[in-house]
């Protein structure tokens, strides 16, 4: 997925603008997500929405197709989405809607799953839009996998094939 813009709330009005840190980014999508997105797009076609770029009072207007829109085919304000879609979905799933279970929690879930699977902090920082991988490491370091057994196994595996046999010290 190539992230080139986002919806922003500026002076209580929706605008399109650059993503986090004013940089676009590419995020690899797994097949399961691509399939779910295709299925959604087959059922619900994107809607062309026109909004100002960065400044709500700007004459510069941008029209783009949005995957998720209001019932009147407008851009969704995040507060409206949270109240009318996200929280009812959580409740229906048996999850108590709290700040910890907000939409932003999905970002943290993603950010915690990748290091656990072995993804590098540098790649994770790029996917999250962080300018500095050090920042990503400081924020998510508590989620990095740690295991004494994994540490032992890593070094054992490194030296397993290079260990000398019983007569390695004998001279011919």
TrEMBL record:
PROSITE patterns: TYR_RECOMBINASE. It comes from the Bacteria. This is Phage integrase family protein. It comes from Micromonospora narathiwatensis. GO terms for biological process: DNA integration; DNA recombination. GO terms for molecular function: DNA binding. The keyword Cytoplasm does not apply. Pfam families: Phage_integrase. Keywords: DNA recombination. Residues 1-156 form the Tyr recombinase domain.
């Amino acid at each position: 997925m190539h992230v080139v813009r986002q919806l922003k709330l500026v002076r209580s009005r929706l605008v399109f603008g650059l993503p986090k840190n004013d940089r676009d980014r590419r995020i690899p999508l797994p097949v399961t997500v691509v399939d779910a997105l295709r299925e959604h797009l087959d059922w619900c076609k994107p809607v062309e929405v026109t909004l100002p770029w960065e400044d709500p009072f700007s004459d510069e207007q941008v029209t783009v197709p949005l995957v998720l829109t209001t019932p009147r085919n407008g851009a969704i304000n995040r507060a409206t989405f949270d109240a009318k879609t996200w929280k009812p979905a959580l409740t229906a799933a048996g999850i108590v809607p709290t700040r910890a279970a907000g939409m932003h929690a999905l970002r943290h879930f993603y950010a915690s799953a990748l290091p656990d699977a072995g993804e590098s902090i540098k790649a994770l920082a790029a996917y999250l839009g962080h300018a500095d991988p050090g920042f990503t490491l400081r924020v998510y370091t508590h989620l990095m996998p740690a295991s004494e057994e994994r540490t032992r196994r890593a070094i054992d595996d490194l030296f397993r094939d290079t260990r000398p046999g019983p007569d390695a010290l004998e001279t011919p």
